[in-house]
Design a protein that fits this description.
about 425 residues; 2 domains; Jelly Rolls; single chain; alpha+beta; 16 helices
Length: about 425
């Protein structure tokens, strides 16, 4: 890829939430924040050693990780693995101590290792330790992690990334099509971003939204990805310096490369990544879930056909109940086909396994966000309540017209899904 680095809008201190909201959050455009946004974070001093050039404080990170020493590590696949069908990178669990030791000793085995999706903040909170970073005010309207906390300390969307130079996170869109911010604690990154308006051109068949996606924008076969040349013209390439924070809007596909330092070419790159969503991203996140559900439905179409045949046989045979029993009877009373309750149940279970959530979880997140938005203490760092209400109502209207929503309302699977939100808005 021959795109040259460009400049993103650069937000300097003092940071205005209204500026960010009007110029970036609502229009869904990326930007960079100067070092002052996160300069007070404790991790800038605790995660790094003070001497020059700065380096990782390995003993401190190992102490934070504690007895749970395994982390998710991505490494380059071997030629033999690729011959056997493995992807260019392989994900495996390894001991953090081993990874840090390989880097510290300069071993060639450490080259290409990348610790990703490390839930260190969650683990730290479980241990009752002080937070090593605080979400900046401009990003604090965070429905996703706020909702996660209502379920206890089971999961979050706050991650530490730690990778050797020249490692890459290949082209992707963030989870749920959510927003993210990423702060470089140590080192530099190159970001290549593509606006949602051109994301279809990143696929092998632009008219087929689930066709093959480009993996690495540096090595694109133009004969296979015929939309690439047009997509490349819209690419935004930016170098993120140490201490800076980038805002990546939801729906923007992006690839990220860890750049070697001229003063310390083997020094790992360390960053904090944080996914979040709120009313400004609600329609996009809703559509992403709809797309995931449709993909799951396509993948088990044979199950739907089997259910239709099964219930038709039972109808002809005079049986009033099948698997699903009372729920299917209620679905029939609501004017729905009796097999649909079982079908929706199957699809929702699959989408939860595949994507991490379904309608119940989505509306749980929205309910948390609506309720939190009514707190006067947070209203200076969120859109106006009228805007939030309008966005939620738009999503409710789209949801209520869906066939699976009708099925869920008629069964005990989800008779209250979306209803609490409707009352609160």
């Amino acid at each position: 890829m021959d795109c040259q680095p460009q400049s993103l809008p650069y937000l300097s201190y003092p940071f205005s939430y209204q500026d960010f909201l009007l110029n970036h959050l609502l229009p869904n455009t990326p930007c960079l924040f100067s070092r002052q946004l996160t300069s007070s974070w404790p991790c800038f001093s605790s995660f790094l050693l003070p001497h020059s050039p700065r380096s990782i404080n390995a003993p401190h990170l190992l102490a934070l990780q504690g007895s749970s020493n395994l982390v998710s590590v991505h490494r380059p696949s071997t030629p033999l693995e690729r011959e056997e069908g493995e992807a260019a990178t392989v994900c495996e669990e390894r001991r953090l101590e081993e990874v840090l030791g390989l880097w510290e000793d300069g071993k060639k085995e450490g080259k290409g290792l990348y610790v990703k999706d490390w839930h260190l903040a969650l683990q730290n909170e479980r241990e009752g330790e002080k937070e090593f970073y605080e979400t900046p005010g401009v990003f604090r309207d965070d429905w996703l992690n706020g909702w996660c906390r209502t379920k206890g300390l089971e999961d979050d969307f706050k991650f530490v990334y730690l990778g050797s130079p020249n490692t890459t996170t290949h082209l992707h869109r963030d989870v749920y099509s959510s927003n993210s911010f990423s702060t470089n604690l140590l080192g530099r990154k190159r970001w290549t971003l593509f606006p949602p308006s051109h994301s279809h051109l990143l696929r092998r068949f632009p008219d087929l939204p689930r066709s093959q996606l480009i993996s690495d924008v540096r090595e694109v076969d133009k004969s296979v990805f015929r939309g690439w040349e047009e997509a490349r013209k819209k690419a935004v390439v930016v170098i993120q310096e140490e201490g800076e924070t980038i805002f990546v809007p939801g729906g923007w596909y992006h690839q990220v490369e860890n750049l070697p330092s001229s003063s310390s070419p083997t020094q790992p790159i360390l960053s904090i990544n944080h996914n979040w969503l709120n009313s400004t991203s609600l329609l996009r996140v809703f559509q992403a879930l709809v797309d995931d559900i449709e993909a799951c439905e396509e993948s088990i179409e044979d199950v739907r056909e089997m259910l239709v045949v099964q219930y038709e046989r039972e109808r002809v045979g005079g049986r009033s109940e099948a698997k699903g029993g009372e729920e299917n009877v209620r679905a029939g009373e609501a004017g729905l086909e009796k097999w649909e309750a079982e079908w929706v149940r199957e699809v929702q279970e699959l989408v939860k396994m595949d994507s991490g959530w379904g309608w119940e979880e989505f509306w749980g997140c929205v309910e948390w966000g609506v309720e939190n938005s009514l707190d006067p203490s947070v209203q200076d760092l969120q859109p106006p309540l009228s805007y939030i209400r309008d966005q939620v109502n738009l999503v409710l209207e789209s949801y209520e017209g869906r066939r699976d929503a009708m099925v869920l309302r008629s069964t005990s699977m989800g008779s209250t899904v979306g209803e609490t939100v409707k009352r609160k808005t």
